[in-house]
Amino acid sequence: MKQEMTSRPTQQSCAKMAANTNGKRASCNDSDLDCNEKRRTRAQTRKIRSEIFENPSTTRMTFMTWDVDPIVTQHIYDDLGVREILVDDDIVEKLRPTPPIMVNNGLFPPKPRKVETVHSHPGESRLRPLQQTTPCRWMSRKHDRQKNDSTMGQVPWERLSDELLLSVFSWLNKRDLSRCMMVCSRWHNVGLDESLWGRIDLSGKALRPAALGYLVARGVTVLRLARTDVCSPVFHDEMGLNCLSVQECPLKLQYLDLSMSNIEASSVNEILRLCSRLVKLSLESCSVSGETLRYIGQCSDLDTLNLAMCTGIGEDHEAMAYMMQQCNKLKSLNIAWTNLNYPTLAAAVSNLPRCLEHLNLSGFRSLLTDEAVYMVVQRCPGLIELDVSDSSLLTPTTLETLINGLPSLRHLALSRCYHINTAYLVNLGAMPKLATLEVFGILCEIGIANLKELLPRVKVNTRLFSTVARPTTGYRWTSIWGLKCPNM
């Protein structure tokens, strides 16, 4: 009995195990069928895609539109209690916004992509998209600019006209302009325009030989060379200027300041020989010669001349007389402390132009006399400013001459004229336009205070140095005769 009882469960369990095994086998068969179906579907899809990309011309495109069965639509309208609005077919076509969808054999095509064939296993190939890198934003913009440029091989600067390029160069200083002229021949030609080189300041610099000549030949009109070292020669033989005469002179220099510059007399003559258009000239503290005065006389338009403290013209009275006779348009003249001898000073005084308004004759200690001042008053009755300081031979007679002969005089300098009695200075109040009076070294502080009370409308001792015909006065060290010169 026990054996039968034990055998029965064993048979039941075996039956169950057999049923489970059959079920598993059936499920495995079903799963195998599904896998095979999926594999066939994938292979078919892969084949269709390969045909699309390999032979796009053979692909047949169909159009599909969306529509609803009219019977079903009528039932829906009846249930809602509404009726269909009839519209013309033309209007329906216009109101239909959705374009037809292109379908390839009933399947939606994928997004077009560049593909490459990759062999992962022998005899097997599959498709994968190419890795395309998108350029940066600045790279794309640069590419667009290069693509849109109609003039290939040209930079934007070359498309500018000469007028626009000239206006750009006008904002540069002379050093940067010289560097730009070395870029190309076109920039060099534009940079040689005379409007860019009108005013130049080379004060305190050292110039190599012929450098000044090349600079002046560009059309400079205002040139400041104060305290400048100028090496000889000024003009190079290749420039072709040495063989020209004054009438054939191409230089346009009008304002020249050579005050306290280190330059030879021959170089000064070389410049003045070709600069016959000078209007204002300053050779203060320079070494000159009689030939220099003759070249100055050829400047017929000269109206301001500063020869203060010049050396080398003390004994050439003929050249001084020639210069004074030719420069008949002079309005400002400064020949202070030039160490002239008496014949040369007499030649200068007796040939002064009648249009002279500003005159400086200071520094002639034992040469300037009352007779010389009287001649000055007779030659130049329209003087506005007169400086006769450091003249020890002048007497109160000079004051009477000035009061009677110069009614337009506004500034008078009598500093260190020790032979003029201080009591006669009060008589200067009779001059109607006298505004300033310089009497340094004559009166003490108490005497100056008393003189100010006796002459209330005259300012006493306001100028320590004379400003007659000098290019730079006061704090305006970057300009000459009121014209601003840009630094090089």
TrEMBL record:
Q: Which organism is it from?
A: Branchiostoma floridae
Record's subcellular location: Cytoplasm; Nucleus
CDD domains in the record: F-box_DmSKP2-like
Classification lineage: Eukaryota, Metazoa, Chordata, Cephalochordata, Leptocardii
The record's keywords, sorted A to Z, are:
Acetylation, Cytoplasm, Leucine-rich repeat, Nucleus, Phosphoprotein, Repeat, Ubl conjugation, Ubl conjugation pathway
What is the purpose of this protein?
Substrate recognition component of a SCF (SKP1-CUL1-F-box protein) E3 ubiquitin-protein ligase complex which mediates the ubiquitination and subsequent proteasomal degradation of target proteins involved in cell cycle progression, signal transduction and transcription. Specifically recognizes phosphorylated CDKN1B/p27kip and is involved in regulation of G1/S transition. Degradation of CDKN1B/p27kip also requires CKS1. Recognizes target proteins ORC1, CDT1, RBL2, KMT2A/MLL1, CDK9, RAG2, NBN, FOXO1, UBP43, YTHDF2, and probably MYC, TOB1 and TAL1. Degradation of TAL1 also requires STUB1.
Pathway(s) of this molecule: Protein modification; protein ubiquitination
Q: Which GO terms describe its cellular component?
A: cullin-RING ubiquitin ligase complex; cytoplasm; nucleus
Q: Where is the composition biased (Polar residues)?
A: 1-30
Q: Would I find Nucleus among this entry's keywords?
A: yes
Q: Which residue numbers delimit the F-box domain?
A: 154-200
Q: Which GO terms describe its molecular function?
A: enzyme-substrate adaptor activity
Tell me one GO biological process term. Answer: G1/S transition of mitotic cell cycle
Q: Where is this region: Disordered?
A: 1-31
- Protein name per the record: S-phase kinase-associated protein 2
Tell me yes or no: is DNA repair among this UniProt entry's keywords: no
Q: Origin, by domain of life?
A: Eukaryota
Against InterPro entries, the record matches this protein to: F-box-like_dom_sf, F-box_dom, Leu-rich_rpt_Cys-con_subtyp, LRR_dom_sf
